[in-house]
User: Which sequence fits this backbone?
């Protein structure tokens, strides 16, 4: 095939066009793929408890947490703030942590999102302080939440004036309870 | 609007690592029969297409991830009613564009609320918000066909094409490329010609013409 120098080969231009599509990060793709299995799994009517796993932490883009190979997606969040993504069963819990101006406390905005498109519904969020000096973590029933907040029907919630430290978060809605263990703020 | 971020542009390649030989209608039928692997394959096939559209609307990557999930959810909901699986790409483009546009408008409303003096700029943005023009939709479909054809190539050819035609990859010398691909530099030219012929054959078989 002969082409003029100022007329690029249309085949080569076509091949280059493939590069105009952008692959999503692996965790985005896997979350979409997880939808199918989550929707087809049998559901329980009794209280369901799940411990959520951290799958993304924007402060540690180099790490490869569970199911996430290409982090960095949330690097667009506001400077000084960071984003954590937890997954408990078929629910993702997205936390945006923003330091307050006093430099001591944090504001957390969160949202629980069903991976299978179910409505989260109203519920509650409890914050339990963790004391790493203790050798045994007290039973859940013996621990008093230091803060409670409403979980909006949209799955959104907000926690204000949390001091830096480690916390457990209990998110309850419907017949579900999802625990986020040892959340570092 | 509709400009890709530098971060997004850096993720243009590689092409999907899996071969995609099943037709869309076969995958949709298998999904409806409970085959989770078919759903995985369907998402693998269209992931880049779905994710690219919100980025073209100027959305941030976090929003693009949300749009991606919403579109997957809609696809799962509508699987049983997809009457023309052969037109799945077009359906996905339309659905993703609408979803992206909804998020763009939502973001504009939020910005207008938070910026008291932004009434004028907000109005300008809204005027710019519309579904992708026809030529851009066609370009997306063509890009998808080319990616699928590249995915059908042998791993060696796929790597060669990727290295030669990626705008974003670091420029590589022929010597380095030959070393990477495990072939002699003298056979790089013939290999390139052979791979391009293979690719053209795949594309022509799919009715593609440049």
Assistant:
């Amino acid at each position: 095939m002969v082409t003029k120098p100022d007329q690029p080969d249309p085949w080569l231009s076509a091949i280059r066009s493939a590069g105009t599509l952008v692959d999503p990060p692996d965790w985005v793709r896997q979350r979409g793929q997880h939808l199918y299995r989550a929707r087809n799994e049998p559901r329980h009517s009794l209280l369901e408890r799940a411990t959520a796993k951290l799958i993304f932490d924007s402060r540690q883009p180099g790490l490869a947490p569970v199911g996430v190979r290409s982090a960095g997606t949330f690097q667009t969040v506001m400077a000084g703030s960071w984003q954590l993504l937890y997954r408990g069963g078929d629910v993702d819990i997205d936390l945006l942590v923003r330091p307050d101006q006093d430099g001591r406390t944090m504001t957390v905005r969160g949202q629980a999102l069903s991976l299978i498109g179910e409505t989260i519904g109203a519920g509650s969020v409890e914050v339990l302080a963790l004391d790493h000096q203790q050798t045994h973590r007290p039973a859940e029933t013996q621990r008093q939440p230091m803060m409670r907040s409403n979980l909006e029907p949209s799955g959104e919630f907000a926690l204000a004036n949390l001091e830096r430290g480690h916390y457990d978060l209990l998110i309850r809605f419907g017949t579900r309870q999802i625990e986020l263990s040892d959340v570092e703020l | 609007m509709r400009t890709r971020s530098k971060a997004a542009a850096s993720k243009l390649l590689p092409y999907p690592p899996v071969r995609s030989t099943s037709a869309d209608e076969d995958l949709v039928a298998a999904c409806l029969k409970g085959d989770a692997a078919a759903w995985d394959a369907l998402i693998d096939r269209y992931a880049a297409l779905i994710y690219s559209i919100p980025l073209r609307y100027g959305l941030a990557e976090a929003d693009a991830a949300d749009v991606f999930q919403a579109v997957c959810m809609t696809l799962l909901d509508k699987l049983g009613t997809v009457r023309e699986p052969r037109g799945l790409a077009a359906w996905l483009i339309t659905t993703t564009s609408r979803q992206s546009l909804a998020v763009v408008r939502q973001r504009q409303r939020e910005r207008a609320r938070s910026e008291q003096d932004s009434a004028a700029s907000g109005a300008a943005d809204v005027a710019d918000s519309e579904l992708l023009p026809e030529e851009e939709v066609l370009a997306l479909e063509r890009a998808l066909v080319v990616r699928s054809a590249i995915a059908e190539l042998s791993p060696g050819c796929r790597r060669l094409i990727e290295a030669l035609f990626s705008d974003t990859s670091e420029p590589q010398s022929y010597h380095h490329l030959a070393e990477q691909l495990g072939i002699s530099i003298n056979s790089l030219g013939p290999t390139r010609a052979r791979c391009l012929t293979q690719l053209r054959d795949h594309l022509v078989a799919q009715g593609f013409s440049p």
Summary: The radius of gyration of chain A is 21 Å. Residues 1-6, 63-77 of chain A have pLDDT under 50 and may be disordered. The first strand of chain A starts at residue 48 and ends at 57. The beta strands of chain A are 48-57, 82-88, 91-99, 105-114, 123-129, 147-151, 156-163, 166-173, 176-184.
